[in-house]
């Protein structure tokens, strides 16, 4: 035992990893054909986290603002790109829209936390800046991805309705308002659901980690409350941002719907 928490050996980590065999067994028994993907996912999880651990150990030891910013920028780009990979219907410029939305929303909220709410000194302390941004990014990209996917599906399914409204003299906003609202709502629902059950059905990862590290439960709860509101705000901003950017690309200033820009990723790859 060290520093108020129990250190795990690689043997213990390996024992936990063996539990993935339960998933593989279910896949084989029901012929789900997921066992190979499960094992690959398990391998990637282990390798990726070990590499991240080595990188963070170096960054924490160095503690230079430009190194922290570089890592945060790379995380933001990766998050924005990941949101697009989950979206079947894409259009030219979707990658930029996603990265800008994830980046802007997450950094605005992270800045509010580091400079105001948590008031970290100095602001680039990697023990705070990187985990805070990472948690915000992870949830913001989910909202952005869901929003993009729903907007594309809604516009594709309602193509004739949208074009009919435009043909009758409606503005591009009047024609796209219902799909836009549906997309923003879809992106925000998961975080709202999480907030409804947090502490009752589940204990969030950050709070659990702090408790395992020996932090007082009340202090851990305070941090988790802050994190939940940071995540909710970033998710809302990111989802709204990407949906509006997509709307501006798919509708011209002359109130025309550019449906031809939407294409299934299987057709564009």
Structure at a glance:
The protein is mainly alpha-helical and 269 residues long. 76% of the residues lie in helices and 1% in strands. α5 (94-117) packs antiparallel against α6 (126-157).
Low-confidence stretches: none
Give the strand tally. 2
Taken as a percent bin, the fraction of beta residues is under 5%
Compute the CA-based radius of gyration: 22 Å
Number of helices: 11
Taking strands numbered 1, 2, ... along the chain, how are they ordered across the largest sheet?
1-2
Number of domains: 2
The major pleated sheet works out as:
2 strands, antiparallel
Shape annotation: globular
Q: Pairing-aware structural class of the strands and helices?
A: mainly alpha
Mean of residue pLDDT values: 89
Structure description:
The protein has 2 domains: 1-62, no CATH class; 64-268, no CATH class. The chain has helices at 10-17, 20-29, 35-62, 65-85, 94-117, 126-157, 159-167, 172-197, 205-212, 217-250, 265-268, and strands spanning 89-90, 263-264. The model has no long low-confidence stretch (mean pLDDT 89). It is globular. It has a two-stranded antiparallel ribbon with strand order 1-2. It has 11 helices and 2 strands. The longest helix has 34 residues, at 217-250.
